[in-house]
Amino acid sequence: MRAVRLICGTLGLALLALAGCDHAPGKPGAGPEVIDPGQVTDFEALFGQNCAGCHGEQGKGGAALALNDPVYLAIVDDATLRKVSSHGIPGTAMSAFARSAGGMLTDEQINILVSGIRSRWANPNVLQGATPPPYASTTPGNAQHGAEVFSTYCASCHGPAGRGGAKASSIVDGSFLALVPDQELRTLVIVGRPELGAPDWRNNVPGRPMSPQEISDVVAWLAAQRPARPGQPYPGAEKKAGETR
Predict the structure, then answer these.
(1) Has residue 34 got a pLDDT over 80?
(2) Whole-number Å distance between alpha carbons of 16 and 19
(3) What's the predicted TM-score (pTM) here?
(4) I need a labelling partner for 99 at 20 to 30 A (CA). Which of 19, 21, 121, 198 fits?
């Protein structure tokens, strides 16, 4: 009988010891499991972690073009949104986000972002019957005529030569143009920057929307102002012989 009691007591102590392992010093407590980043399917989480840093918390108000802009979403299709999100825009701050292009997001996550942007921020009635210019140019622009277009539609804000005016900053700054490709210039001309007070293609001159050709021409003029070697010293900045600065 004594042996039986000894065995039972030993087993009891062993069970208590095992139960106490759940509270052993240094053992992590119960908590949520870490989710594989590739398994995140919530739009808010994906947008906040990957897009908000440049495009703003709610898709606007950031340094980059607003995605929470119904006019922009009226001229760009889902295939373009998916392509830019996946592969980025080479030579700009817009990097590739798809895993297939060196990013961190799966194709499913890219699709969630595109469909979420469209469902939350698009407005099919935003253009009120207007016919928007095509997102991409269908004809080459004429830079010479573009100078006249700029004078008519843009100079009142950006100044006669585009170097800045009372209402807007320089649009021909070499550093800016070096970072913004022609397609993005075209997009900016069409949709404007409403969060900064810049109107879209319909409202630069009241009652006189820009034509698709005028948009192509002014983009050609802007592109012609792009420096051949961005980042090089500005003219006159070279130190002369014997000069100290």
Answers:
(1) no
(2) 5
(3) 0.78
(4) 121
